[in-house]
Amino acid sequence: xxxxxxxxxxxxxxxxxxxxxxxxxxxxxxxxxxxxxxxxxxxxxxxxxxxxxxxxxxxxxxxxxxxxxxxxxxxxxxxxxxxxxxxxxxxxxxxxxxxxxxxxxxxxxxxxxxxxxxxxxxxxxxxxxxxxxxxxxxxxxxxxxxxxxxxxxxx
Length: 155
Hints:
This protein is mostly beta strands. About 10% of the residues lie in helices and about 50% in strands.
């Protein structure tokens, strides 16, 4: 019983952003399996209420894509926007990964990192992909200005 209570407590303290697919467009027809496409996902920053990031990226179709064996391209685009009143659940680290998603069956991930620009009172979001041996320099950046009446709390 104690183990169950501890497990629930740990699960409640873990913060992980969940992507929500907004839509997609087909880019190439595939005879077998799903078409290649560009998908647009949205995720709410887990520590910053009122900020949502929208990420577009390629998704490989065909048989490999259908079975989750395809390696998606490294390129992605990101736009984060204020969608409500900005508030913070707790002080933020200077830099923190807020989201990641697997792009291949092994070792390749799309990552989104939030950085705090204290001088400008802004949140900067960077998206890039990495791979165990050879990551990609492809990246995109966006920023959300926070009203100076709401200072960003840092750890």
